[in-house]
Amino acid sequence: MKKISAFILISFLFISGINLEAFQTVQVSFEVNVLNYEDDIFHVTVYAEGLTDENNIYNLPSTVPGTYSLLDFGRFVKSFNAYDKYGNELEVERISTNRWEISNVHKLSKIKYDIEDTFDADITEYQVIPMAGTGINENYIVLNTFAVVGFFEGLQSLPVKMKLDYNPDWTIGTSLQLDENGNYVAESYDYFADSPILMGDLTTASTTVNDIEVGVYVYSPDGSKDATNILELADTLLQAMGKYVGYSPVTRYNYLMCFLDEKTFHEIGFEGAGALEHSYSSLFVYPGFGQFGAGVQDDMAHEFLHILTPLNLHSNIIEPFNFETPTASEHLWLYEGVTEWGSDISQMRGGLISTDQYLKKLSAKISHSDNFRQDLSLTDLSLDVYSEVITMQFLNFYEKGAVTAAMLDIRLLELSNGTRGLRDVFLDLVEQYGKSKPFPEDEFFDIFVENTYPEIEEFIEDYIEGTKPLPYVEYMAKLGFNYIDEIPSENTTPALGVQIGMNEHQQLVVMGTDEITANSGLKEGDIPLKILGTEVTMENIREIFGRIRTMKLGETVNMIVQRGDEEVEINLVLHQRMDRHIFQSMDTITEQQKKLRDAWSKNL
Ligand SMILES: [Zn+2]
Known about the structure:
By secondary structure, the protein is α+β, with helices and mostly antiparallel strands. It contains 17 helices and 29 strands. The protein has an eight-stranded mixed beta sheet with strand order 5-4-8-2-1-12-15-14. Strands 17-18-19-21-20 form a five-stranded mixed beta sheet. The protein has a four-stranded antiparallel beta sheet with strand order 6-7-3-11, with no helix packed on it.
């Protein structure tokens, strides 16, 4: 890092003949103090020198890569003051939520501002998803750098240097590099923002995948989640991912994982938890209780595969990233859909799960995608991803997006006589483009067709840009699998047929129902007040559902729900669970089907 900037400095001087003093005058560095966890505030000092009128605005991000939502970190700023080198205050005008204009910026020497952590801030409107937020606590701090540190107008590409004042007994997990003076450094704001920090009483473990040093840093409130255990369970999975990737696009990669106890999790009122990908790391904020942690290894695989896309294959719309005005790329089907497909299929191809288990994952994804709007194409969903109406629909990239990629893979294998599937095409494109060569947003589909077959144009028009139902019946038959719409589940626990989630007011709400339950009169958006005579709260909902699980088929569950201004009483009958969208091997398969299935089972 230091070497690169020194090199740029020398060659710049050489070419332009500008004197060293003039160039050195633009200097910006940051100091973030989190020594006192009790005040729950990041104290930020920005040291600046040599700024001109073009740089007179200090920005905090409105959105950041991978979140596809409005975050507006300016909302969390508590105080903001600018000073000249004599300590005199300079006039500052807050010109929008995330922007501060500094008068006489050429005199600026220092900005001091306080910014709250997002986990427990008093802001209820569009909450920041925890893995993109910040949390200050006695035993750990989650520090997404973009949520605390901003940049001056016109200087997004300037190298970033940050001193961090923190509890020296703590362990730090981050992919940021330290310079010889103990500052965290990055070649630009984009790079800096791409590198979160987790610090605290952490456990750590490491492994190697291909030539990539992989580190795991874990905070667990009760010590029940431990880096060594998590890595032990994930290691074979990560090795399968390494095999799928086939080379080492980065030299290091860190998992930063923060597990929260039940009380904190509910107090903070998270709408969700999960992981956010970065180029050299990913940050997980997970509930550390109940069954929630079960999917963590799958998520580790998914996040790891993001080193291929968007890191090494992305549109010119997202590089350099527009932190000020959310700008959507239509290619989320690639960034999220292909990534999610890859993390599943590579488990089958790597021998970690059987074909049957893979097909079950595929069925589950099709079933989940039934709950989303069918009239939105993947590209429309991409382009509208910042609009509030669509927020929850975004999750369909992990369902329909992944199933679409699975079908595209089958079509490519068929057209290439089993020699070149989606993985090969994808890796070829990664090679053609890479980290610093974005593809043109509007031409990517043409590029994709040029790199494959003319028939793929129709696939894109129908299923990625269009909303035709996916051809899984026809396509899976090419591999010798039958499709069955619905069969009684092996799981004999009676079903209530209700999905409960949380709305934007932190209330429990009916998110979806199956057909039988919908026929009983329960509607999406209903707010459960009483179930089986017990008043429903966030704390007892799991206990209530536990009681329902001990009941028998045919028994009735009485519910009182709020619907608008009305209270409605509904009786739901416990019924047999059904599995939907099932794939089973055909009794006899042709030579051709066998050949394609063999190719599909291999790491192509
Ligand atoms: Zn992802």
